[in-house]
Queue: 2 jobs
Job 1
Amino acid sequence: MTPSPPAYDESPQPRQSPRSPGGAHLDSTAHIMDRITSQLGSQLSLVSLDGRRRPTPPALVLVAHGSRDPRALSTVSTLAERVRELRPDLPVRLGHIELNAPLLPDTLAELGTAEAVLVPLLLSRGYHIKQDIPEMAAASAARTRVAAPLGPHPLLVETLYARLVEAGWRSRMTDEQRRSSAVVLAAAGSRDPESDVDTRRTAQLLAERLGVPVVPAYASTAAPTVPAAVHALAARGRHRIAVASYFTAPGRFATECAEAAPWIASAPLGAHPAMARLILHRYDQALAAQETPATRELAPAI
């Protein structure tokens, strides 16, 4: 059973990058310290309180949708590597629902009867979360559990914000600029009403982060479309309209949505560090949900 999404205040706010007196960013030093801390936590997690080494943790299987765009496979492969960097002793595998190898059933078959946590690289509830992935898991010999979708979550908002800034969004605006600005959150779309609920929640969180209206729109199935959302915002006097790509990786839908942007369009979420942290958070959540209070132990901080 898929765990319910967590409370939205569970993650820290995005950290501001400090500057040295000479003006140089200290991001590289912070990144090194983060990696050292994460790797130390990973090593400590393998030792129990009585000093004995714990068994190998269940494998983390990243479940991607799959795409004919070769950039998608490259992106999710890079994301898997980032997860491995954060927790080197955790077995990390990749499986696709369709279109790309390895397919999820093949990845699960290679695991035999081992334990695994399936973490979908999907941003909301929908058919794949409720039907496809659980059915593939049930058909395998592996002992599996399925984590919650990645969204909604503040770490996704952190990634969306970073991608918008990369595309040219100003982190500081005048009141006049803010009154004329807005964002269309471009998502894939689904017939499942819970998918729309999740996407709208992400739009709300992003609007709070940016201080401007954020309207969810969809590439297929659901309404409004991205062009329709752009038109509606322009009719309200919002002429600086950005399209935020709410896709895990490049593909046809992401490209079509970006082409509808009247101003700037951000890149897909991709292999941003916050995405790797969120994947491990969902993995830890799924494990904790299966443990009793007496046996539950804290996972290493990300």
Note: Residues 46 and 54 are 5 Å apart (CA to CA).
Job 2
Amino acid sequence: MIINDISLARKALLNDDVVAIPTETVYGLAGNAYSEKAIRKIFALKNRPFYNPLIVHIASVAQLPTIAKDIPALALQLAATFWPGPLTLLLKKQQVIPDLVTAGKDTVAVRVPNHTVTQQLLRELDFPLVAPSANPFGSISPTTSAHVFQYFNDTIPIILEGGPCIKGVESTIIGFEGDVPVLYRLGAIATEAIEQITGPLQKVTHAKNQPNAPGMLNRHYAPHTTTYLTDNVWQLVQQFPNQKIGLLLWKEKAHEQANVYSITLSSTANMEEAAANLYASLHQLDDMHLDVIIAERLPDSDLGKTINDRLQRATQQW
């Protein structure tokens, strides 16, 4: 049920139920971060493996010491710059955080979401929320309440309406190895912006198993339709004669062709617009019962790195 009533969402969360919530990045499946009962419900709904850790969502940086300890000064500087917003910090965890949240690791991923609905909800709770993306594990992330409902129907009692997600891709995840800042996941804040504060980041963004942070697995964010990522869309189109093809293009509009359908991420070549449109466009193409989707690789700079990262995890290379 898609609703606007925050009080009903709060009541469900107090009862250890799971609620779908909006954030500026994607919609999340939220539960009490201190309740193993609620956390297990999230893993079951998503069919998510327990080795893949979750992100804890808090209302403000003032709550951070209740979640994390031994917080580096650089982490606090990043929080002061980017919170509330799509930055997740991977820090040493306080004992109050269940091992289920962190996949047994001694670090916890935490952020302050920048969405008025979820901010209000968090302020009305006396516990933080874990909230992985509100989709079955490995599928395209949801950026509207309709996407969430399409995945789960009424198996989630409450989907809190918050409109389309303005960022449209997940948060950037930064951790620390000693005093060295580490990029664990490309996200809605470009690495160039973060490196203005941190200096050069060490990059550890992929893991076959036992990831240190969410979003590191090689196969993720994937449509049901077989999807390819390429620098040369039109060359690849020729490899699929007489098939129904969907194109996901960076900025150029496709010429009309029989059996070829196209979506342009940003006709003005705006990276933020392209990121905001990415998952919604993949959902749209995936719902068209195509034979194949062909995605165009973006310039590998700014948020283009993030979009390419998501497409690489969702597609087969050509």
Note: The mean pLDDT is 94.
